[in-house]
Write a structure and sequence with these properties.
Length: 259
DNA sequence: CAATCTAGCCATAGTAACTG
DNA sequence: CAGTTACTATGGCTAGATTG
């Protein structure tokens, strides 16, 4: 929830948001999602309405029905839930970007590493809230792209498409590497933050003692962070290229496969 | 008949009122 | 003023209705 909070805080505040963790009735039996009453009262129409959910992953739109009497997303919610493969415990952040239109960010309980990475990048970049939300989307997109590639692969004949499998494996290996990098970045970012806080504290308590040396140490740490960020950017670019290559291969395969 | 949707019921948490 | 109780709002579950 702390991670969700951090993501939430880095979204554009001019759009109202609400956070919802997935329970059994939202992702299995019944397939309906309750909105919090205060949010529904403030931002939802006073009548049943069709609501558009825009997946932050691929900008794909899903229509669902909002039932005002129960403050729930009902008809159509199941399609979104299945398409995004939502599980109990996953947390969704709904950002109201237009009347009856939400952008939806998925924070998966089982894959918090994805969000950790996004948070690490937020610490590093810090050049505006809009940019931050793009970073989160991009980071989650990359991880989801790897999963999507698996889904595609499951639909085709593995035996006759070894090359695609290999590409998929390479892609997953790359994702693993990037996740590991992100974990390290997060740790470094937190450490640097602690250092800055402790530096400020010491400065308050003991005046200007060793100020120069402490600043030097901080600069070294910051340089390390920047270096790691540049390395990560390179890996992300390479990962994107791999994803495009895999998509092309799958597309070719789909074109060649008779209906 | 199976999948999907809806509405009602129940449990729980929060709050207000009452009592000692 | 603090503790207890009762009421209300909210959220989750599930059975029944509807639709294809």
């Amino acid at each position: 929830m702390n991670r969700v909070k951090e993501v939430q805080e880095n979204l554009d505040p001019k759009f109202p948001i609400f956070v919802k963790s997935m329970n059994r009735s939202a992702v299995t039996v019944g397939f309906m999602l309750k909105l919090s009453r205060p949010f529904a009262d403030l931002h939802m129409p006073g009548h049943d309405a069709s609501v558009v959910l825009v997946d932050a992953f691929d900008e794909e739109e899903y229509r669902t029905k909002f039932l005002v009497t129960k403050s729930v997303f009902s008809g159509g919610w199941k399609a979104f839930s299945i398409a995004r493969r939502l599980l109990e415990g996953d947390v969704l952040i709904f950002q109201l970007i237009k009347p009856c239109e939400f952008k939806v960010y998925v924070v998966r309980e089982s894959e918090l590493g994805e969000v950790d990475g996004a948070v690490a990048l937020i610490h590093l970049k810090g050049d505006g809230r809009q940019r931050n939300s793009e970073i989160i989307t991009e980071t989650i997109n990359i991880a989801n792209a790897a999963k999507a590639s698996n889904l595609l692969a499951s639909r085709i004949d593995f035996a006759s498409h070894i090359e695609i499998s290999k590409a998929s494996e390479q892609l997953q290996a790359s994702v693993g590497s990037v996740r590991a990098q992100m974990g390290r970045l997060d740790a470094l970012a937190l450490k640097a933050k602690d250092e800055v806080e402790s530096f400020k504290e010491r400065e308050r308590n003991s005046g200007q003692v060793h100020r120069g040396e402490q600043k030097k140490a901080l600069v070294v740490k910051l340089l390390k962070l920047i270096e790691a960020k540049v390395r990560l950017d390179g890996e992300i670019e390479s990962l994107k290229a791999n994803t495009s290559r895999l998509e092309l291969m799958c597309q070719k395969e789909a074109d060649n496969t008779p209906n």
